[in-house]
Write a structure and sequence with these properties.
3 domains, four-stranded mixed beta sheet, binds zinc ion, elongated, three-stranded antiparallel beta sheet, 14% strand
Amino acid sequence: MFAKTIPLFRLFGIQINLDYSWFIIFFLITFALAEGYYSHVYQGYPGIVYWFAGTVSAILLFASVLLHELSHSLVAISRGLSVKEIDLFIFGGVAMIEEEAPDPKSEFLIAIAGPIASFLIGFFFFLIAYYYPHDDLFNGVVNYLMIVNFILGFFNLVPAYPLDGGRVLRALLWSRKDLLTATKISSQVGVFFAYFLISVGILYIFLGNLNGLWYCLLGLFLRQAAKRGFEQTLLYSILSKYKVQNFLVTVKPLFPNQTLADVFNYYYPFYHLSIYPVISDNGEIRIVDISRYKRVPLEELEKIKVGDITEPLRIYISPFDTLANALKIMNKYKVEEVPVIYRNTVLGIIKRTTIESILERELMEAKSRRVL
Ligand SMILES: [Zn+2]
């Protein structure tokens, strides 16, 4: 497998990554500025100067995008959410905020922080241009950066989810209705806006302007993201209604002196679990994962004591937690089964397949009720 991103550096504990697709846009912008805009508007410099100005502009543009994403991230962190990464890619940047905002106010503040940052950066370049009123290449670079930051701010304020403006709209709707309805409406606006961009793109292509291709690609990307955003919210809103305690597989803990043959003969056919709780001699709850032993012959399994292959209990969930949180934990730690623990007692195991079948049933019912 190829890594999709190149790790750059860390800022405020957030890992900044560069997606390979970023190089395409970086080259296109540098090229367009050096060979097109700068060399035509500001004549009289050697060719290399335009390429230098183009490269500096493209780097500062992406520094601006990074600051935009960083503002989302820092506000998210201040509202108690965790942000581990920011990825820069062909359509700009994305802050990987690990969870949904807990309330409309947080959602609003996190969303609005990005465009505000872009406007402030735009204003910063405006001040430089204002105090350096010479019509030369330096002024050209400053002007370019001012304009793109203002465009970045305004474009992101379009109320089309998952753009920042769409998140603001969702926050405002959420403060009056439930999150699912708010997400549904704002992502519908998002899909509509995506089709608008695609139409504009097709029109441009017909008129012989190849920039139209860019609008089409951006539109397709936004349409996909708007739909995915709604599905994600739908999934969590369904699963938030259910508690882990009603769906766990109740399982009796193993003892350290039992053999793996016992587990495969008496436990596995009944529970179909890969992990089992074990109570060690000092009363500590540990976990045994039998998935690695499924192909080992029975006579070998008879020689392996459960107590010799246990692991510490690292991941677990409370029975009163929701299935939405259980799924979050499973996705975060990339596991299929999570032990359910209450007051140092093992109640059982919650399985991903159980959660998925509940989800499937609910979606089928919702479809037959024509809610979706
Ligand atoms: Zn943003």
